[in-house]
Specification:
The structure holds 2 protein chains of 2 kinds. By secondary structure, chain A is mainly β. Chain A contains 4 helices and 17 strands. Chain A folds into 2 domains: 77 residues, no CATH class; 162 residues. In chain A, the strands form 3 sheets. Chain A has a 13-stranded mixed sheet with strand order 3-1-4-6-7-8-9-10-11-13-17-16-15. Chain A starts with a strand and ends with a strand. The mean pLDDT of chain A is 95. By secondary structure, chain B is an alpha+beta fold. Chain B has 2 domains: 156 residues, Alpha-Beta Plaits (2-Layer Sandwich); 140 residues, Alpha-Beta Plaits (2-Layer Sandwich), CATH 3.30.70.520. In chain B, β1 and β2 form a beta hairpin. Chain B is elongated. The N terminus of chain B is likely disordered. Classes of the chains: A mainly beta, B alpha+beta.
Chain lengths: 270, 308
């Protein structure tokens, strides 16, 4: 495996911004320049060399080892290549990511995949609140790409999401798909309370839901061609990471009728 | 199609004389569309309906046909399907044809769905217009590079991909004329050639059952018409016009081939010729020739001697 490896020297005592650590960016720099990149957020900002032992050679992959929940912005703006993280990461991982792959062998913090537009993020553990969500000044949340979380995710996953696919092997927290404009969230372990609050369009697919909003309406059981297309697309794109196909018949619950009501929650047919 | 013999040369293959002439074909634009349904029966019904009245671009606006059946593994929704091809003069000319044919014949067909059947950078609308049938209830789902429209209809949802690919490298009018002394045997032989051609991907034979009995020449004595019967190949006029046919000829049938590439059209002609020369002599087939305009009108020339 070619590529640079960054091993955290000691658990970080301050939040670090690792957006500079992306393979294409590092390939243009000499090793002493990489070591001088700033990653700290304080006045006396830490550099890569202060925080990490660096080994390996530049390639289209990088590995970050011994990471922790204070390491933010991993894969921020990534366009190509792979970032592999052994351990947990902080907030904003994969924010505004356009392509490539981020593989997190641990848990991810809040705002994972915020405003992501392309590429793949795979989280082996859990993810925090506002997965694929928006920050102040953003127009939309996630607008493309695929996120796979093997564990559970926090509240408001997919807030203001417009396109793209989120797959959660576990369960979502409350109000998944809030203000959603499009895209798909597939929660194999089901949805927490009140998914789809104020959603306009988009699809929430899951094994169940804790409590529906009163502004969602039952449209009955259907054999939907689009679910077959989605299943096949995910199988072709993700292979083993794809969710298990839904049963042929799904119960369609439309909403949020407090908006234009073109969104849907699809559950196994009752 | 006017046949103009430059030479009375040729070659005997298994008792069938193959003229030393060429088929003259034209550059066209072509698109592919995948139609699926709950069963192959209904995928085919939608496909046959959508490709109906699509024999000649002059009179029908497009030349259409079924390319091949697709197994569930080959379709985007995992259901049985059919790939159809539609050929027209230009990508622009295909837009209206695709819109009307899909809107009237596929949207309306029970259980159908419709997808891009040609991966090409140049795109035209497939579901772009039919989606408006949804009257505002339609929704879209973008997966990868494809956007799928979901139009609520009375048996569920009609799913249709937003665009399909178009190629401007397509060829229309590859052809062969098969000459015989027995009408039934000639038809049987020509059918065998159409079946052989059907196994080639990316080509269609747009006429009824793949066969034309009314070959035409350019021009007519009547004002307001462009083409008329190919009297040189009409057996009943053998004594009355400057005939191309020898005594004993009872009928001539033509196969017209359109394809997404010139190479596929040539391959289709090759297997068609082989089918005719393999069984034709026993069925009263005496000769194979091809239609051309002296080589000045069409960009593509398929010399029979190169294909046997």
């Amino acid at each position: 495996m070619s590529g640079l490896t960054f091993r955290l020297k000691a658990p970080a005592t301050e939040r670090l911004d690792l957006s500079a650590l992306n393979p294409a960016n590092l390939a243009t720099l000499a090793s002493h320049e990489i070591a001088r990149l700033k990653v700290g957020m304080g006045r006396d900002a830490l550099t890569v060399g202060d925080a990490f032992d660096i080994s390996g050679t530049c390639g289209d992959e990088i590995t970050i080892e011994g990471a922790g929940a204070t390491l933010d912005h991993i894969g921020d703006g990534l366009e190509s290549g792979t970032i592999r993280v052994i351990g947990n990461v902080g907030a904003y991982a994969g924010r505004k990511m356009k392509g490539g792959k981020v593989e997190i062998r641990g848990n991810a913090g809040n705002y994972l995949a915020s405003c992501m537009s392309g590429g793949l993020i795979h989280v082996a553990g859990n993810a925090g609140n506002n997965l694929g969500g928006i920050l102040s000044g953003d127009r939309f949340g996630m607008i493309g790409g695929i996120v796979v979380v093997e564990g559970n995710v926090g509240a408001r996953a997919g807030d203001k999401m417009r396109r793209g696919t989120v797959i959660v092997r576990g369960k979502t927290g409350p109000v998944a798909g809030s203000r959603m404009i499009g895209g798909t969230i597939w929660a194999e372990g089901g949805f927490g309370v009140e998914p789809g609050l104020m959603m306009r369009r988009g699809t929430l697919i899951g094994s169940g839901v804790e409590r529906l909003l009163p502004t969602f309406v039952d449209c009955g059981n259907h054999d939907l061609v689009i679910v077959r297309i989605l299943s096949r697309y995910l199988k072709a794109t993700l292979g083993d990471l794809a969710p298990k196909p839904m049963p042929l018949f799904v119960r369609k619950i439309a909403g949020d009728m407090a908006t234009i009501g073109k969104g849907e929650i699809l559950l196994p047919a009752a | 199609m006017s046949s103009h013999h430059t030479k009375l040369a040729g070659k005997d293959i298994n008792g069938v004389f193959v003229d030393d002439t060429f088929a003259e074909a034209f550059g066209m634009s072509g698109t592919g569309i995948i139609i699926t349904a709950d069963t192959m029966k209904w995928a085919k019904i939608a496909a046959v309906t959508a490709t109906g009245f699509g024999t000649s671009v002059i009179g029908c606006g497009a030349e259409c046909g079924l390319d091949r059946e697709l197994s569930p593994d080959e379709t985007p929704d995992g259901r049985p399907g059919v790939r159809i091809l539609i050929f027209g003069f230009s990508p622009d000319a295909l837009i209206g044809q695709v819109k009307n044919r899909i809107g009237q014949c596929v949207l309306t067909s029970p259980g159908s769905a419709c997808f891009s059947g040609l991966d090409a950078p140049l795109r035209i609308g497939l579901g772009k217009a039919p989606r408006f049938f949804g009257d505002g209830f339609q929704t879209a789902k973008k997966l990868g590079n494809s956007r799928y429209w979901r139009v609520p209809v009375m048996d569920g949802e009609f799913v249709i991909e937003e665009t399909t690919g178009v190629t401007t490298d397509a060829v229309g009018g590859g052809n062969m004329l098969i000459v015989g002394t027995d009408r039934a045997g000639l038809l049987e032989t020509t059918e065998a050639a159409v079946e052989a051609i059907a196994k080639i991907d990316d080509v269609i034979t747009p006429f009824p059952g793949g066969i034309v009995r009314s070959g035409s020449k350019v021009g007519t004595k009547y004002a307001g018409m462009f083409a008329s019967t190919n009297d040189a190949f009409c057996p009943t006029l053998r004594g009355a016009t400057k005939s191309e046919l020898t005594a004993g000829t009872l009928a001539v049938l033509e196969i017209v081939i359109d394809g997404l590439t010139s190479a596929r059209v040539a391959e289709a002609m090759r297997v068609g010729l082989k089918a005719v020369t393999d069984i034709g002599a026993k069925k009263g087939v005496t000769r194979i020739t091809a239609g051309n305009y002296g080589g000045k009108l069409g960009q593509h020339h398929y010399h029979l001697k190169d294909l046997i």
